[in-house]
């Protein structure tokens, strides 16, 4: 009987000594917004595309260097892109702009804050979609 217990202990020891696996890190909140809203047009790799219209690439996009530009585009819309002020919170807008500006080959380090969206963003339009 002792032999069986000793053998069981030797077999179980390596498994007991292992650390439990770490839970995967939560995704960046901006990644969630990007995947659920932005990538439908700008594509999963942010390369944009052409078809019925031209969707600009966000990947390696120098226009994103000045944080005010994406704030104005996301809050106010531009050309065929609708505005998202009023349908996304200021925090969600800041998160997705920060995500795009620090991924897809973009390496802009300064962060956009919800306060910047509130201050710089265009007010939520009234009366539905507007032509640009």
Protein architecture, described:
By secondary structure, the protein is mostly helical. Helix 2 packs across helix 4 and helix 4 crosses helix 5 (114-120). The protein is built from five helices and two strands, in the order ααββααα. The longest helix has 16 residues, at 2-17. It starts with a helix and ends in a 12-residue tail after the last helix. The chain has helices at residues 2-17, 29-42, 68-76, 90-101, 114-120; strands at 49-50, 54-55. Helix content is 44%, strand content 3%. A hairpin with a 3-residue loop joins strand 1 and strand 2. The chain has one domain (28-120): Cytochrome Bc1 Complex, Chain D, domain 2 (Orthogonal Bundle), CATH 1.10.760.10. A two-stranded antiparallel sheet has the order 1-2.
